[in-house]
Amino acid sequence: MGQVDLGRQAALLLLADGRLPAGGYAHSGGLEPAVIAGRVRNMADLEAFLTGRAQTAGLVAAAFAAAACARARRDDLAALPELEAELDARIPSPELRKVSRDLGRQLQRAMGSIHPHRYFLALGRAPHQPLVMGVAASVLGLGPQDAALAILHDNNAGAAAAAAKLMRVDPFEVHAILARATGPLDELARRAAETADADPADLPAPSAPLADIAAEHHRRADARLFAS
Predict the structure, then answer these.
(1) Are the beta carbons of 18 and 157 closer than 8 angstroms?
(2) What are phi and psi of 162, to 5 degrees?
């Protein structure tokens, strides 16, 4: 199968499209355990949850996606294992590490079918999602900030979409929250791109301990709608 010729803006929209068959629909981004625990009960709680998630796990994912994109653009795939190790160190929860690799494998498979490239094979069998996103952005002719923005939007929109199944919400209000987040997500993507060429050990490392604990409890839940 030959490569698909995509324009730059269309390529960014493709990567950020929740309908891309990359497995995100099966995950709530930690929203389900937060709802079950009573920490997210209404629209204000949901907005605070999404904001906090973007500023912690989202920024980490964005920084590593930008870094992977920058290295792929200069054909420095030998640096990817170090990025893998540093990202592992920033995800204390074994369950969240597994989720990141499951989503990475799904995105790798999707992009390998949509736009075959040797870089996707070089990622190995179970790469972290942000690294696949970064490499995919590079393969599609996008830059580090594009890669960062794509994964920030994907993570934010995916968790927001899960709210419709977990809470009694007005979808218009949910999308109003997403609209208010566009400026902050742009700023986070810019910050992530500024670190794209940094040593992997110096990439952002904000943490969210409660999310890590919740993920481990959620894994053991008898009944759940989402994988995470």
Answers:
(1) yes
(2) -65, -25
What is the helix (H) or strand (E) element at residue 51, kind and residue range?
helix 43-53
The answer to whether 166 and 46 are in contact (CB under 8 A) is no
Q: Which residue's entry shows tokens 């920058």?
A: 70
Concatenate the DSSP letters of all residues of 191-202 into one string: HHHHTTTS-GGG
As a whole number of angstroms, the distance between CA 47 and CA 142 comes to 29
| Integer Cα distance of 209 and 220 in angstroms | 18
Q: d(Cα 156, Cα 53) in Å, to the nearest integer?
A: 8
Give the HSE-up count for residue 75: Cα atoms under 13 Å, Cβ half-sphere: 2
At residue 175, the 3 state secondary structure works out as: helix
Distances (CA, A) of 5 to 49, 92, 115, 181: 38, 39, 9, 31
In angstroms, the CA 185 to CA 55 distance is 9
**Alpha helix (H) residue ranges in 115-203:** 118-122, 129-139, 144-166, 171-180, 182-194
What span, in angstroms and rounded, lies between the C-alpha atoms of 186 and 203?
18
In the three-class reduction of DSSP (H, G, I as helix; E, B as strand; rest coil), residue 10 is classed as helix
Q: Name the residue among 180, 225, 197, 138 with its Cα closest to residue 54.
A: 180
Is the full-model pTM beyond 0.85?
A: yes
pLDDT tens column, 160-195: 988 989 999 899 999 999 999 999 999 999 999 999
